[in-house]
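Re: Re: token formats

Sure, here are both.
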Amino acid sequence: MADLLVIGCGLIGASVGMAMRQAGRDVLLADELPSTTGTAVRRGAGRPWDGSEEATVALIAVPPRRTASVLVELQSLDVARTYTHVASVQSQVQREIEALSQTPSVVLGGHPLAGRERSGPLAAAADLFVGRPWAICAGKDTGATAHADVRALVLDVGADPVELTAEAHDAAVAVLSHLPQLVSSALAATLVTDGSRGAVEPGLRLAGPGVVDTTRLAASDPELWVQILELNAHELAPIAKAAGTRLTAAAEALEALAGPAAPRAQAQATATLRDLLRLGNAGRALVPVKRGAREDAFALVRVTVSDEPGRLAALLTDAGAAGVNVEDVHVEHVPGRPTGVIELLVGRPDVGRLYSALDARGWLVMEPDATDGQRDLSR
């Protein structure tokens, strides 16, 4: 008996397989497209399923509208002890499974909050789930064995299990995942619609991390995301409307500032914009950066480097030699120059030690100042 059977070898399914293989587990793979299964096998996600071999856990990683039917059909073959899925919307899928399944006690839904804007097995990575939350949403009939099996799977791939109801999950992801997708798509759409393309296109060389980061999600698969948005529309609609109200208020404030408004109206418009930006600061401070820790637990150390092979690896090696754990890395290229800025996210207590170590090794480091801003010493 294999440890895991994965049905659906896209980004999530293939990544789960690769992570489980890395943990020493035996993984079976199947996808409706044989070519996708083959790609996942070549990526090291597992071995092809023959349609009858049994597994301890079967994981269904297909689009949310098909999740329940695929899971119940697989269950009828009696090929696994426990069945789970990774649907982005849990409530509807859970209701469908409870209505269709003869043995809902062996089913436990889940959702890893670790997707990417790219899809397919070629985008998969064994470390995709490391340190990321994985929602576990038990149904009213879920049994202890299924619960134990799914928790073990989540821990094997390096994720952090978070147990909550399907309803609480859907309310949370409406704010934390589905609204960001809408906002990112809306922002990216302004580059090609409403006559703005002609104004923006000549200046696209000026694009920096702001537009790159905020439009990253806009590259996601529209067909998959329209299913997600439809299934969670009741949670997402009021939140999207509230966000739209804030943007409308900001637009009206900008109109007042751009026109011949009275000084009092202009002062009120400025206050409206300031309030929005400050509220944004407060909201950003609530967002966990890594392993549940908030942004204020970390700091950035920025290093100016030449854009040539081996420099990033050398920088990380020197950071490791200093005994500093780098939590995240971001590379910002400087347009028109053979240089870039590498941002190392580290624990705040490590900033001074890392700066001193890198400076001693000849790196051009942007020194943190007393206000926690950073000034570039390399110029």
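Second one below.
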Amino acid sequence: MLSDPTDNTSPLLAMRCISKSFPGVRALSDVSLELMRGEVLALVGENGAGKSTLIKVLGGAHPPDSGEIHLDGQRVRFPTPTVAQHAGVSIIYQEFNLIPDLTVRENIFLGRERTRWGMIRAGDEDREVRELFAKIGTEIHPEARCRELTVAQQQKVEIAKALSQKARIVVMDEPTAALATKEVEQLYAVIEDLKAHGIGIIYISHRLEEIFEVADRVMVLRDGERVGCDEIGNVTRESLIETMVGRPIESEFPRHTATPGAERLRLEGLRRGNAVRDVSLTVRSGEILGMAGLAGAGRTETMRIAFGADTPDAGKIYIDGNPVRIRNPRDAIRQRICLLTEDRKGQGLVLKHSIRENFGLPNLDRYLRGPFIDERMERSELAQYAESLKIKIVGQDQPAGNLSGGNQQKVVLAKWLARQADILVFDEPTRGIDVGAKYEIYLLMNRLVEEGKAVIMISSELPEILGMSDRILVMHEGRIKGEIVDVAATTQEDILAMAIA
């Protein structure tokens, strides 16, 4: 377990005994946090541990019920996000705060426009945006509409927006969730530059390898309480996991004995522009097929075709050896295929609707009794999955948008499991999810293949690909560049070599 030494030096930021409750939920209980100048403090914990609430208190989005915030030794109050920003607090939230119909430039300078005589100096803003993107090593046109950007590009816009605010404290909440390996390295360089200028950084991530790469200290929250804080050099991966979940975990990636059966899904010669170029693959019952590759390699695009979300230019799809025509997701669902999308908020859930309504959406034909929905059956099934998947909810009528990222992912899982699909595509299934929830999802995937399901897992986390896959396909620029059968003898470097070939 982590120790909790007291630091007597003067911190840049001190949050003292912060408590916060919501109806039915005690989110934070007397949590204290200290951040030094030029330091990276990693803030970790399971989903629902209170990390986001603590950051929203710091950012002025939530008023604390009790406790104090001190900046440079002076007590401060942040009643609104604007006040916090003016004080030098900049937060890159995990859930993007971009306005889709505004341009990249307009989003970055929203509320802080560069003006002269009442007119926006678009040229000056354009140059500053280009300088910011050069700093973080990316190229995005300043006049592109944010709704046209990929998830990874939107993440970079959020990072640029934070850097443009000349902050003294920068909070990064899952900043690499949508970034490729090269882009992550560029972010690390930005962090080092910020540290050199005395800026304090609070870094939230469920990717433990990142914590050990960038953090100077690590602080752990569990169930709304601070349960540990220590120098990163005093912490091991195993002790950090144990502190986060409150119990030892024998293996981060629980292994299963693969006994692949008959072919369930076969794709032949799929093509769609330059995104998918002559892709053929098979997956069998009782098998986890991992799909690796850099961002934009074509993994997601291939499986969107298989799910009927995109129309191919050419190619064939076979289920259980029989050719099928999948024109839309409804056809795919009838063929017992489900897709857990990488963007659970944008494509996997209707955030304003209740958990129950989201759960029922793909299962309405089963719950309909004439023109009415059998709500009792719907609620009963949801309760079963909420218990088996350990979904933390206040009630079934709670809006899905109010759940933590990990619990949102579990709701998406629940609705598809209720559909009794035979072929399950998991696209970045553990993105933004804590190590304890990841473990539960891994156990679930093992259970599915033991039941004879076929699982395709798309993941940018190479340890996850190697730890869970029975077989791995590596994609590059829309094509399959290689197949790995002997996963146990394969390294991350082997996969990367294929991915950048």
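Residues 181-196 form the longest helix (16 residues). The domain at 251-336+421-501 is CATH 3.40.50.300 (Rossmann fold).
- S.
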